[in-house]
Amino acid sequence: MVIAKLEKDLQNKIMAIDFLTHQLVAKNSHELIGF
Predict the structure, then answer these.
(1) Averaged pLDDT score across all residues of the chain
(2) C-alpha angle 9/13/35, rounded to 5°?
(3) pTM score, two decimals?
(4) pLDDT at residue 20 greater than cutoff 80
(5) How far is residue 3 from each of residues 6, 12, 18, 29, 32, measured CA to CA in Å?
(6) How far apart are the C-alpha atoms of 30 and 27, rounded to whole Å?
(7) Is 6 domain-assigned?
(8) For the residues 13-31, what does the mean pLDDT come to?
(9) Could you tell me how far CA 31 lies from the centroid of its own chain?
(10) Distances (CA, A) of 9 to 2, 17, 19, 22
């Protein structure tokens, strides 16, 4: 079904955004700490 595909696409986007956000937070944390 189309809805199921859209839900899967949305989940993939959320996971990708979540991953990128964690990468940015980790990078900023390292810069703050001084690594």
Answers:
(1) 87
(2) 155
(3) 0.62
(4) yes
(5) 5, 14, 22, 38, 43
(6) 5
(7) yes
(8) 88
(9) 20
(10) 11, 12, 15, 20
Degrees, nearest 5: CA angle 2-16-29: 160
Structurally, how many domains does the chain consist of?
1
33 part of a folded domain: no
Per-residue tokens: 26: 């980790």
Tokens linked to 24:
């940015």
- Name the token pair of 15: 């996971």
Domain assignment present for 34:
no
CA–CA distance, 11 with 8 (Å, rounded to integer): 5
The owner of tokens 């700490």 is 33
Residue type, 11: Q
